[in-house]
Amino acid sequence: METSKQENYVLRSNQQERYDKRLILKIVKEVEAGLPRKEAKQIYKLGKSSLDIWMKRYGSEHYHQNLKRRSYTKLQKRTIVTAIEQGRMTIKEAQTAYNIKTEKTIRDWLLCFKEEKVDICIVTQPRMANIKPSDKQALEKALLEAELKIKALNTMIDVAEEQLKIDIRKKSGAKQS
């Protein structure tokens, strides 16, 4: 013999009364199980923010972690951008690997760091045609070393900014004193 558990909730007689807590918990559980919020609001005739408040207050910890907006440090962003620029991964692969919601976020980082590189390092290139082959190799080696040095300095600045909680880099709109 099968026994079905009938759930009885006290319904509100007017809008000033509170919802039955058992009903609230049931609705929260249904939304966490996959019921779209819009449908839940229609089915249970909820106000605009009631469900949002209930999800924050009564939702499971796992549910909250999935909703939280993830923030990335400059060092993490620079690592991701460097990996993409060096061809070690595509934007799509980075999005998946680092659990980033949209490709646009990564594209914005790429633009930001590209502008930063232009600000930091304006390179004047000598005419390579007039230079001897042995000098070209020396210049290419010096260039590689300079690029590594720039990366190391940027990483040091990122770490210092993170640990000291101060902005070290000059902002583009900063006034000269």
Q: Any idea what the radius of gyration is?
A: 28 Å
Provide the β-strand percentage band: under 5%
Helix content: 55-70%
Helix- and strand-based class?
mainly alpha
Order of helices and strands: HHHHHHHH
What's the β-strand tally? 0
The global form is elongated
Describe this structure in words.
The chain is an all-alpha fold and 177 residues long. It is built from 8 helices and no strands. Helix 5 (74-85) packs across helix 7 (103-120). It is elongated.
What's the gist of this structure?
By secondary structure, this protein is an all-alpha fold. The protein has helices at 21-32, 37-43, 50-58, 61-67, 74-85, 91-97, 103-120, 133-164.
Topology, please?
Layout: H1 21-32, H2 37-43, H3 50-58, H4 61-67, H5 74-85, H6 91-97, H7 103-120, H8 133-164
Helix pairs in contact: 1-3, 5-7
Quick tags:
177 residues; 8 helices; elongated; 59% helix; mainly alpha
